[in-house]
Specification:
The complex is a heterodimer.
Chain A (H helix, E strand, L loop, with lengths): L1 H5 L2 H8 L11 E7 L4 E10 L2 E10 L2 H14 L4 H15 L9 H7 L12 H22 L10
Antiparallel strand pairs in A: 1-2, 2-3
Helix pairs in contact in A: 2-3, 3-6, 4-6
Chain B lengths: L9 H4 L9 E2 L3 E2 L1 E2 L10 H14 L9 H20 L8 E4 L2 H14 L11 E5 L8 H10 L2 E5 L12 H4 L4 E7 L11 H11 L2 E5 L11 H4 L3 E5 L10 E5 L1 H6 L10 E4 L4 E3 L13 H17 L1 H19 L5 E4 L10 E6 L4 H10 L2 E2 L1 E3 L4 H6 L5 E5 L6 H18 L1
Parallel strand pairs in B: 3-15, 5-6, 5-7, 7-8, 8-9
Antiparallel strand pairs in B: 1-2, 4-10, 9-10, 11-12, 13-14, 14-17, 16-17
Helix pairs in contact in B: 2-10, 3-10, 4-5, 11-14, 12-14
Classes of the chains: A alpha+beta, B alpha/beta.
């Protein structure tokens, strides 16, 4: 059934048991909303040099947006910025693929649990839900590390 | 099949709506319960629109050729139909716009540029309510910001009604305009017009009524309402998109200034100044939505043939049935009045902790179309401490079987996320 391709077990697990939820100390904080549906996230990043020490967040929204934030926390915390950016760009590429990308082993290695969102890319109305926390992370990172380059992007 | 007193012969009516026969997602029969967002269009309306383009298409109010005269007669004929449909004293009080939002923005802009006694400025107040659609909030916020006027509003009771207990403090001698929704698009509440109008008249304030969710569903009589302006839109009442209506009292339309300038709204133009055409043309700058207005006229013919009182009875019966069936769903909480009394056929609800997006997605997979989100009425969600709702809304072609399908669909949602 098509719906199961969107609501993968991995996604539902992250939704029910989110990783790293709650706001903790950070270098920058952003608040992003998805105006069409009202999903919201407040997200903080903490860096140690270029290493991501923590991504903490609080938010409300559908299972897709909340699970995506949980996966982001699991994937990015502890990574170096360059690696994290590669993960973010790969995730963005997958989500904008309109269901045309079938993740291969290389992509799966980069995205780990986040490949479970491949099915979501077939639902245009839900892509923004999946990208909300990732856009917030990108924005917060720009603010924390390069104030001048900080670009505000709403997912 | 469930039979309820007051129901229309939906089996016959549904034949007029080809789209209702669609199957979606590999063989699921479409159950369309998103009528508060837009209604479906009957063949009779589609035929009139195609015939217009095939036989009569021309610009209106200009040109002396056959097509121009036919197009003008059809367009102005649609105005007659609207005037009769809302019991307007004069056809010249019916202004065509592109939607209800434009109608409401037009009123706000008329008042912003008006002379005394209508002028809204920093010493005056604007009154709305907490259950307004964004289209009846934002134009007034803009007007308040630009003029310095104070924006005030009525709050809501826990059961989804307007809290009018402080009406004398909210509507005061400083109030210039009171603008409120007749039937809420998110709560379904039918508001008590008389009490608000009485107080507004006491202090000499104008009254604007957003009838977008009322005009499609019940007899609408602008004289009985005693309002000064009434706004609604065509696409929620079996008409096409791109056509809205603003009705206004004639003396106001004569006194108030135009907003959009351009062709068709003028009397004479020189390089220094212009004089304006009388209403309604004063407020219809540029080529109007011609085929859309004619389509709305055809939609009104269609609704009249059924009878607005019969449509009201049908939807009331469905709403009674729906609130009863929805009460059987565990963890379901209706946001708004929980009985069919003084309410329309749009029912919003939450389902436990399951986010409405997820509810809507799983329902969609079963062919059931509902609306999820804040329904352009975010302050209502804030008021009731919820992020969003799922909304099912019915129309003249909706059936008890579709309500049963919704209830079954919600069971499936609960199992899926349980």
């Amino acid at each position: 059934m098509k719906l199961d391709s969107m609501y993968q077990e991995v996604i539902l697990d992250h939704y029910k048991n989110p990783h790293g939820r709650g706001l903790r100390d950070g270098d920058a904080e952003v608040h992003h909303v998805n105006p069409t549906c009202g999903d919201e996230i407040t997200l903080r990043v903490k860096y140690d040099g270029t290493t991501i020490e923590d991504v903490s967040y609080e938010g409300q929204g559908c299972s897709i947006s909340q699970a995506s934030a949980s996966v982001l926390n699991e994937l990015l915390v502890g990574k170096d910025l360059a690696d994290a950016q590669k993960i973010q760009e790969t995730f963005l590429e997958l989500m904008q693929s309109k269901g045309r990308i079938e993740p291969d082993d290389a992509m799966e290695e980069v995205l780990e649990d986040a490949v479970a969102f491949a099915g979501v890319s077939k639902y245009p109305a839900r892509v923004k839900c999946a990208l909300l926390s990732w856009m917030a992370w990108k924005d917060a990172t720009a603010q924390a590390l390069g104030g001048a380059e900080a670009e505000r992007k709403t997912a | 099949m469930t039979q309820l007193p007051g129901l229309l012969d939906t089996e016959a009516l549904r034949k007029d709506f080809p789209i209702l026969d669609r199957v979606v997602h590999d063989g699921r029969k479409l159950v369309y319960l998103d009528n508060a967002a837009t209604s479906q269009t009957p063949r009779q309306v589609l035929d009139v629109i195609s015939e217009y383009y095939e036989q009569h298409n021309a610009n209106v109010h200009r040109g002396v050729h056959v097509l121009a005269e036919e197009a003008t007669a059809l367009y102005e004929g649609a105005r007659d139909k609207v005037a009769e449909f809302i019991n307007a004293p004069s056809r010249d009080e019916v202004i065509f716009t592109k939607n209800a939002s434009e109608s409401l923005n037009l009123v706000a802009n008329m008042l912003g540029w008006a002379d005394e006694p209508y002028r809204v400025d920093h010493e005056t107040e604007i009154v709305i309510t907490e259950m307004e659609h964004h289209s009846n909030i934002v134009p007034w916020q803009l007007l308040a910001q630009r003029t310095g006027a104070k924006l005030k509003w009525f709050g809501l009771t826990d059961d989804g009604r307007l809290d009018l207990s402080n009406i004398d403090e909210v509507i005061t001698e400083k109030t210039k305009i009171v603008s409120f929704v007749l039937v809420s698009n998110i709560l379904g509440t039918l508001n008590p017009v008389e009490a608000i109008v009485r107080r507004a008249q006491e202090v000499g304030a104008l009254v604007c009524v957003d009838a977008s969710q009322a005009a499609p569903h019940m007899p609408l009589d602008v004289q009985a309402l005693q309002a000064d302006f009434v706004a609604f839109t065509g696409h929620k009442m079996c008409g096409p998109t791109g056509i809205g209506v603003l009705w206004g009292r004639q003396e106001l339309l004569e006194d108030l200034p135009p907003f959009l300038g351009g062709g068709e709204m003028i009397e004479t133009v020189s390089m220094h100044s212009s004089t304006y055409a009388p209403a309604p043309h004063k407020f219809e700058a540029g080529t109007p939505p011609i085929s859309q207005a004619i389509g709305l006229g055809a939609a009104i013919d269609y609704l009249n043939a059924i009878g607005m009182d019969k449509i009201l009875a049908h939807e009331h019966a469905l709403t009674e049935y729906a609130v009863k069936r929805l009460a059987e769903v565990p963890d379901l909480r209706i946001i708004g009045p929980t009985t069919a009394e003084d309410r329309g056929a749009a029912i919003s609800f939450t389902l436990g902790d399951i986010h409405p997006h997820d509810v809507g997605q799983v329902l969609d997979e079963q062919g059931i179309a509902v609306r999820v989100g804040h329904h352009c009425a975010r302050p209502v969600c804030l008021r009731y401490g919820i992020p969003a709702t799922t909304r099912a809304s019915f129309y003249l072609y909706s059936t008890p079987a579709e309500i049963d399908a919704l209830v079954e669909g919600l069971e499936h949602v609960r199992n899926f996320f349980g």
